[in-house]
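User: Hi! I have a protein structure encoded as tokens and I'd like to know what sequence might fold into it. I'm fairly new to this, so please keep things simple.
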């Protein structure tokens, strides 16, 4: 499923961002879909290719076909069947907070 979605973003100018900030911007030239991570290879404005490993999302929402996709990392998504699990997870102290923790990440095209 993720490959069908990402194929539509290949060789396009993209932006990967949370509601707080832009994570990466550039041309998506390649991706690799592994068991735990999606690796994106993005060419930046200078022409350098940067590798970005994004954890597999709990859910994926296609907001606009080929233009905007939302990766869902919300804890409520994986615990919606059992709210007590969410309470238990929230009690665990976090040593380091990931930029993907309990948020949405949007992948969108910048081309018009």
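Assistant: Happy to help. Inverse folding works backwards from shape to sequence: for each of the 112 positions I chose a residue that suits the local structure. Here it is:
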């Amino acid at each position: 499923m993720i490959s069908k979605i990402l194929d539509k973003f290949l060789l396009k100018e993209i932006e990967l961002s949370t509601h707080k900030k832009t994570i990466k911007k550039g041309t998506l030239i390649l991706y690799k879909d592994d068991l735990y991570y999606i690796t994106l290879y993005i060419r930046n404005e200078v022409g350098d290719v940067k590798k970005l490993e994004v954890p597999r999302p709990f859910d994926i929402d296609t907001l606009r076909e080929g233009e905007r996709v939302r990766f869902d990392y919300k804890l409520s998504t994986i615990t919606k069947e059992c709210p007590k699990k969410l309470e238990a997870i929230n009690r665990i102290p976090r040593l380091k907070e990931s930029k993907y923790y309990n948020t949405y990440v949007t992948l969108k095209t910048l081309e018009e």
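A useful reference point when you look it over: Residues 83-91 form the longest helix (9 residues). Feel free to ask if any position seems puzzling.
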